[in-house]
Design a protein that fits this description.
The protein has about 190 residues and is mostly beta strands. It is built from no helices and 18 strands.
Length: about 190
Amino acid sequence: WTAGRRPSPWSAATWGATIIQSTTNAPIIRYTMATRAGGPLNAVRFSRVSNLMLVGAVGAGTSQHGLQIDNRGLIVTNVSVKNCGGNGFYLTDSVSSLLTNASANDCTGDGFTFDMTGTVAGGGSVNDNLLVHPTTLTNGGIGFNFIQAYNNTLVKPTADTNTGDGIVFGTVTTNNRQNRVLGAYSSGNNGNA
């Protein structure tokens, strides 16, 4: 890549992605507690989602997130989210998820939101997640927004030309601590970072 920027992830044909489109005011893909079908706590934990492009509609509404993780853990590889009315990636109950090459572009909300208070099942936790090479470009909110989350790690994240800050750690100190960012590239955001 040149000048510290990664190539655009939006050419789905070049990496064989399946494209899923939606215009409804609901997450395009949501892994929730309900998907466990009465099984043990980790019945669907660490399922794999890979090689997808999720395309929303900016005017669909603020509840249209690209991928919502609300089931304690998921492995995400090469997933791009574009044009959602809400957030690109919304982690509300995610423990030890691994997201590699996840990208959010042109969403009305944040690129990535980490918020354990947003879980649909109550009592969520957003901790010990590892994001490797995540990218946020031209989103309407913050690039990486840690509202309430702890002990998460971003490795070489890119936050570029978002309307809000590139990376924000919330002010709720009891549930927002020990988050780490290693080797960030942040440029052109309208906020501070």
